[in-house]
Design a protein that fits this description.
The complex is a heterotrimer of chains A (228), B (245) and C (67). Chain A has 228 residues and is mainly alpha-helical. Chain A has helices spanning 3-24, 27-47, 51-84, 86-92, 97-126, 131-159, 165-192, 198-227. In chain A, helix 2 (27-47) runs antiparallel to helix 3 (51-84) and helix 3 (51-84) runs antiparallel to helix 7 (165-192). The longest helix of chain A is centred in the first third of the chain and has 34 residues, at 51-84. Chain A is globular. In chain A, 47% of the residues are buried. Chain B has 8 helices and no strands. The longest helix of chain B is centred in the first third of the chain and has 33 residues, at 11-43. The two termini of chain B are 33 Å apart. Chain C is an all-alpha fold and 67 residues long. Chain C contains 2 helices and no strands. The chains are: A mainly alpha (228), B mainly alpha (245), C mainly alpha (67). Chains in contact: A-B, B-C. Chain B binds chain C through residues 37, 41-46, 51-53, 55-56, 59-60, 63, 98-99, 102, 105-106, 109-110, 113-114, 116-117, 215, 218-219, 222-223, 225-226, 229-230, 233, 238-239, 242-243, 245, and chain C through 1-3, 9, 12-15, 18-19, 21-23, 25-26, 29-30, 33-34, 37-38, 40-41, 44-45, 47-49, 51-52. Chain A: Keywords: Cell inner membrane, Cell membrane, Cytochrome c-type biogenesis, Membrane, Transmembrane, Transmembrane helix, Transport. Chain A: Belongs to the CcmB/CycW/HelB family.
């Protein structure tokens, strides 16, 4: 048996299990998206429908809504596995826990982040964004939402053993989301002025690279604390 | 060095060390605050631009410095606790966090009270004030995570992990907020040139910075003693101690 | 001394409210956390004492019932 081959299999089996489960309970995918859509609808109703105003604040609204709807799915990321004991099995398995955790985060992004990226053009239309800003929105969501999943999974791992972990997790995670929010909205803002926004995307990409390496370690040690 | 340090991993020795250190920190805190406040409030000359309102600097700057100092020492204690599995370091994390949060709160309140006469508003989204606010959120996160756990052992370790995650993120947050601020900064904010501070103002400031370190030390040591007692309360040495005192 | 009189010292050149608000809240927070930490320690020691007294009572009662 080749080692690298079985690592890949372990990753794939955790990933497919999570994605399949999510697709069987479709509400888990659809509800955060609906929430995302409703939050975005609320803003024009609250502050007025002037197109110029909406264009100005659209990046902020889209990104704040993205942060909030990612939080919805995060609470369930490890909770079911914790409750039915399969989390303990993952920890006890011969494969590194970081690998399984990476697979779970990837699955979370597939069912929560990716649909948001795909639906972003629709939201951009609702908020009266230009085509160039639309491209920037899709790109920042594409790089930014995996980051949200990684950072959020740390909070989910720390609070999984707690009965009322959901609100506490938002309290822990939202401050850590601030850099993502700042650079993503700034990229969209810059693009709306027809300027180059590669710098902001590069910083987001750098943060994602760090998160891919460092976050699984933090998440797995958090899970070990929670399960022990 | 390790042979010398190792006994302090034991709760009883750590408790004794706290007791030995406490008077020194207490003297620094009391004398420093007395001298620093009287000097700063009554004897330091008024600023030619900000008049007497600048005297808030004598508590704003020390509390801001030690709000970050407390966070870094908390993170160092957290790393020690997780790497070498030293329970006392975990307790230190839990003891420093409330004191650091208090320092952050002081920095925020004094910043607002200084901002009102200088900027004309209680709150301005200045980069440093915003970072300080986020720092307060991080402190609250560590504290509420610890208190949410019924098993304080897991709670302590979870708080340590969060403290380390926070300290990795803190420079990124600080940098991003600073960068965000230069993008959005209004013209009303004037940056004060603090590098050319006169010695007559610098000395009381330095004394206050040292005094606040003393306060941080005193309160942290008292809280650390409490935490050690709390988790060792069934041990014989604690009973002896309580009987004696 | 920078101030001529005590009332001038309190006024802080018109900035009295802000200066004393800062110093007052700072003192309040520091004293508050110090006092609560000290009280916490006292409560802990009392709890240990109460526990010891309880154990002593139980032991005594056991001895009496055996005798």
């Amino acid at each position: 048996m080749q080692t690298h081959h079985s690592y890949w299999l372990a990753f794939k089996s955790v990933y497919t299990k999570d994605v399949t489960l999510a697709f069987r309970q479709r509400a888990e995918i659809v509800n955060p998206l609906l929430f995302f859509l409703i939050v975005i609808t609320l803003f024009p109703l609250a502050i007025g429908p002037e197109p110029a105003l909406l264009t100005r604040i659209a990046p902020g609204i889209i990104w704040v809504a993205a942060l909030l709807s990612t939080m919805l799915g995060l609470d369930k990321l490890f909770r079911d596995d914790y409750n039915d004991g399969s989390l303990e099995q993952l920890i006890a398995s011969p494969y590194p826990l970081s690998l399984s955790v990476l697979a779970k985060v990837a699955a979370h992004w597939t069912v929560s982040g990716l649909p948001m990226v795909l639906l972003a053009p629709l939201f951009a239309l609702l908020m009266n964004l230009e085509t160039q800003s639309l491209n920037a929105t899709v790109l920042t969501l594409l790089i930014g939402t995996p980051l949200l999943s990684f950072i959020g999974a740390i909070g989910a791992g720390l609070t999984v053993a707690l009965q009322k972990g959901g609100i506490l997790m938002s309290l822990l995670v939202l401050p850590l989301y601030i850099p993502v929010l700042i650079f993503a909205t700034s990229a969209i803002d810059t693009s709306s002025m027809s300027l180059a926004y590669g710098g902001q995307l590069a910083i987001l990409g750098a943060m994602l690279a760090v998160a891919i390496v460092a976050a699984p370690i933090a998440i797995s040690s958090a899970l070990r604390v929670s399960v022990s | 060095m390790w042979k010398w340090l190792h006994p302090y991993a034991k709760a009883e020795r750590a408790y004794q060390l706290c007791n030995t250190l406490l008077p020194y920190f207490a003297v620094i805190a009391v004398v420093g605050l007395l001298v620093g406040w009287v000097w700063g409030l009554a004897y330091a000359p008024a600023d030619y631009q900000q008049k007497d309102s600048y005297r808030i600097i004598f508590i704003h700057v020390p509390s801001a410095i030690w709000s970050m100092g407390a966070y870094s020492s908390m993170a160092i204690a957290a790393i020690i606790a997780l790497v070498w599995q030293i329970r006392n370091a975990e307790l230190a994390v839990i003891s420093i966090a409330p004191v650091g949060a208090a320092m952050t709160a002081i920095a925020l309140i004094t910043g607002a009270a200084w901002g009102k006469p200088m900027w004309g508003a209680w709150w301005v989204w200045d980069a440093r004030l915003t970072s300080e606010l986020i720092l307060l959120f991080l402190y609250f996160g560590v504290l509420s995570l610890y208190h949410a756990f019924e098993d304080k052992k897991s709670g302590g370790r979870a708080a340590c992990i969060l403290a380390i995650v926070g300290v990795v993120n803190l420079p990124i947050i600080h940098f991003s907020v600073e960068w965000w601020n230069t993008l959005h900064q209004g013209s009303t904010i004037t940056k004060f040139d603090t590098s050319a501070i006169d010695p007559s103002m610098l000395w009381p400031l330095l004394i206050n910075i040292v005094a606040f370190a003393g306060v941080l030390g005193v309160v942290t040591l008292i809280r650390l003693k409490n935490e050690i007692l709390r988790c060792e309360q069934h041990r014989p040495w604690v009973r002896e101690l309580v009987n004696r005192g | 001394m920078q101030f001529e009189s005590f009332s001038e010292f309190l006024a802080m050149g018109g900035y009295g409210f802000y200066v004393w608000l800062s110093f007052g809240s700072c003192a309040l927070i520091l004293v508050g956390i110090l006092v609560s930490s000290l009280a916490d320690g006292k409560k802990l020691k009392q709890a240990v004492k109460a526990q010891m007294a309880r154990e002593a009572r139980i032991k005594k009662a056991k001895e009496e019932s055996q005798a």
